[in-house]
Specification:
about 200 residues; mainly alpha; two-stranded antiparallel ribbon; 10 helices; disordered C terminus
Length: about 200
């Protein structure tokens, strides 16, 4: 309960992702591609030809199987505990949503560019956006926020990107796009006040 009070947006996002996953799982299966499409997963032809742009948003809350969900939830939990108190509830939510949307749009444009259309979903773009936002916030806090340093965040981001590129079936465009969009969103919305030390 104490964590929910401290980071309510993080807790809400975690609960929302879990709840939606359970609904999808029990109504047709989270690893059933057709059912995931029916639930709002991203698929370029449906977005471009049918105008179903809502998929860019709704796909952020869908996951292909429990491991996919758990991995994203764990990173969301770790980063949310540190980033939400640092920037505030609204700015944290903006970084998550705007970064996730940006990552999904970049993924969509990449699919159009390559002509390689696939069904995609997951909070990974939004989670990478939190990484990008965290990197910027740490930079503004002279290299550390809570127990995270800029070096640790850069290593986390680098390894996460590497494992994505080294694995099959991963939407790397959404990951890289989310990281960049999260960083840029934080640049726009986060302006910490300078504390001037008065010397008598």
């Amino acid at each position: 309960m104490e964590e929910i009070k401290k980071e309510p947006v993080t807790a809400l996002l975690i609960l929302l992702n879990i709840l939606i996953f359970l609904i999808v799982e029990f109504t047709g299966g989270s690893e059933n591609g057709q059912h995931m499409l029916e639930c709002g997963a991203c698929y370029a032809p449906l977005i471009l030809e049918q105008g179903e742009w809502y998929r860019v948003f709704f796909s952020m809350f869908l996951h292909f199987g429990a491991p996919h969900l758990i991995n994203n939830i764990l990173v969301l939990f770790v980063l949310g505990q540190r980033l939400e108190p640092a920037v505030g509830k609204l700015k944290f939510l903006l970084i998550y949503i705007a970064g996730g949307l940006g990552g999904n749009l970049i993924s969509l444009f990449w699919d159009i560019h390559t002509g390689d259309y696939s069904v995609s979903a997951g909070a990974s773009g939004a989670v990478f956006a939190l990484m990008g936002g965290m990197i910027y916030v740490i930079m503004r806090h002279r290299g550390r926020v809570a127990d995270l340093t800029i070096r640790q965040m850069l290593i986390m981001a680098a390894f996460s990107l590497y494992f994505g590129f080294a694995s099959e079936g991963v939407d790397n465009a959404a990951h890289a796009g989310g990281l960049v969009c999260g960083f840029l969103t934080a640049v726009i919305v986060y302006h910490p006040r300078k504390i001037w030390k008065i010397v008598p």
